[in-house]
Design brief:
Elements (H helix, E strand, L loop, with lengths): L1 H37 L11 H13 L8 H32 L1 H14 L8 H8 L3 H26 L2 H9 L4 H30 L1 H6 L8 H10 L3 H29 L4
Helix pairs in contact: 2-11, 3-4, 3-6, 3-8, 3-10, 5-6, 6-8, 7-8, 8-11, 10-11
Length: about 270
């Protein structure tokens, strides 16, 4: 009886402390950073203080960079590019991963090609992206697509391979066709791995955003483009403020994917 009353209480206390630490620890770091900046340990022209970065973020919202633009428009353009690259990667990598995971012959044929191309950084593709697609939306989307594609593909293959063979054999015994096996066994069984790959792929795609937009954007909007302009005018506070915006949006995207996964995969 004591265990039943004390253990949940201890777990609740630990959860409470953990939740508080998530807020307190970053605040402590920011306070220490501000104190160090005020004491002159960090030169403001190289490492701006948190207050300077906050003022820079407010400037990006109110005035914009370049002046007359909007931080929210930059965010929208970047989200559009990342979303396009991610969706293309998703609709190509998932079916390919399921087929490769299902058929050993294809896996043997494609694995060397995948393992040779996969380690090439998306940044190395920038010159070819410009040659193939020119400077603009398509080349940036292609770079983001490359960052998303391989994590989703490999996770999907791993998910298919993790499906227990006896489930496939049982479905065959009951007269299931290959189509039914794909739809009723392989896809549901590999869905958790697909979501894991999607989260990793989306994170990598979001990280390649700045480099993708460094290739040049005709619209003149995007968080990467905005950071490049801030660099040109020697405003490190605006550079870091743009980095903060990228980090916050990336965090919100990951939270959105995790919540969608938890609702779709309640059976887990």
């Amino acid at each position: 009886m004591c265990l039943k009353t004390t253990v949940p209480g201890n777990l609740g206390a630990m959860n409470y402390i953990t939740e508080k630490l998530k807020i307190i620890f970053p605040l402590v770091l920011l306070v220490l950073w501000q104190i160090a900046s005020s004491l002159g340990f960090f030169p403001p022209h190289n490492i701006p203080s948190p207050i300077q970065i906050l003022n820079g973020l407010r400037e990006l919202i109110v005035i914009g960079l370049p002046p007359g633009s909007s931080l929210f428009l930059h965010c929208f353009e970047s989200l559009l590019r990342v979303g396009s690259g991610f969706l293309v990667a998703l609709v190509t990598a998932v079916p390919l991963g399921i087929v490769v995971g299902r058929f050993a012959v294809l896996r043997i044929m494609l694995t060397p090609v995948i393992e040779v191309i996969r380690p090439i950084p998306p940044l190395a593709w920038i010159p070819l992206a410009i040659i193939w697609f020119g400077i603009g939306f398509q080349s940036a989307t292609f770079i983001i697509f490359l960052g998303c594609f391989f994590p989703i593909l490999l996770s999907t293959i791993s998910g298919v391979l993790s499906v227990e063979k006896r489930l496939i054999e049982a479905a065959k015994t009951l007269g299931a066709t290959e189509k039914i096996i794909f739809l009723k066994v392989l896809i549901p069984g590999s869905t958790p791995s697909i979501f894991t790959g999607a989260r990793i792929g989306l994170g990598i795609g979001w990280m390649t955003l700045v480099a993708a937009e460094f290739t040049g954007v005709k619209s003149g909007y995007g968080l990467g483009y905005m950071i490049m302009v801030a660099r040109d005018i020697q405003r490190p506070d605006l550079v870091i403020a743009g980095m903060v915006a990228i980090g916050l949006l990336g965090y919100l995207l990951d939270v959105g994917v995790r919540r969608f996964e938890s609702k779709l995969l309640r059976w887990r």
